[in-house]
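Entry for N-(iminomethyl)-L-glutamic acid complex. Fields follow.
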Amino acid sequence: MDLLLQGRYCTCDAGDVSVHEGYVGVADGRIAHLGPNSVPAAEVVEVDGCILPGLVDPHTHLVFGGTRVDEFARRMAGEDYRTIAAEGGGIARTVRGTREATEDELFERAAARARALRAGGVTTVEVKSGYGLSTDHELRLLRVARRLQAEGLVRVTTSFLGAHTVPPGRDRASYVDEVCAEQLPAVAEAGLADTCDVYCDGVAFTLAETRRILAVARDLGLRLRAHVGQFDDLGGAGLLAELGALSADHLEAVSDADLDAMASAGVVAVLLPGAWRTLRQTPPRAERFRERGVAMAVGSDLNPGTSPTADLGLCAALAVRDAGLTLEEALLGVTANAGRAAGVEAGALRVGAPADLAVFPFADPRTLAYALGGSRASAVYLGGTRVAGEPSAPLW
Ligand code: NIG
Ligand code: FE
């Protein structure tokens, strides 16, 4: 064994959120031992607090340029997100800011955000494009996302989101043609996207357009996900169930029939408290998902327009307070269920899995969803290597 952590641990594997006393052993970057008995190791670390799987953020727009603080001020004074978007603000505004930035500038800002997430225990991040909206600009964002992993910051899974909005001045039919015939093939050819995402909503793309784009993506070998029901229920969640998608994200507006379809197809619901809070929307209700057996994950939705947060623990805490998840559901929502939604082998302590670990100073792992944000990991391991964290006394 290269490394042996001794103390309390919570696997989050197969729904197990209980606390065990024992040992987590690491060999060759993977978890090689888990249990009450000790094994010989080159290095032994005694843990005060609780060892969790590295957290997984299953929904971020991490790569962008510019800020939208002035739009936020206008919205808090009563203006509507959709009205601002229709005037060329919103996503289109960030597209301008992103296109103006160099690739290195985009990387530096994205790396800072990744480090902030990681300080809170996140080791795997789903990163979308979507602020480029042309083949070259979308490829640039996906390259930046991949570089975050290549430089050892966090593990990354990428989603192509060329269908985030219709670029201003473009005819929507010709833009959807471009996404299908140029952008998607180029992204797939470059191997830069694991998944395809579409913003399916009244302000964005129709159900028919979403179906067409996702079908092309599936044929190119990409996994699927989409933003559905953020404002309007267009039936996107049902489409994602039909297509066997990994996740359906937002779901402030979704029908019971589509939730049933998601449950049967095993599509994970990704709930995004930062967005419903920032948009002052009515949150989804956990019992609707729970009673139908739809697995729930929680994401930060880190983006400059609707969710300027890099604190996944805060999002878990808000999912409990606003949507009614139990503390245990919120914990699974940022670990095992988030790993499923992201389509990666992460979010659970299991022998054979990569040794991505987050050690928190508190003894009860539910503290992550109890504390209203600000939970900092005392150690973060990525593939068995310590990459972040400062020892501290528990705040709560
Ligand atoms: O997830 N819904 C679409 N995309 C983002 C908002 C992006 C923006 O406003 O820049 C979201 O909320
Ligand atoms: Fe989003």
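NOTE: Residues 222 and 237 are 18 Å apart (CA to CA).
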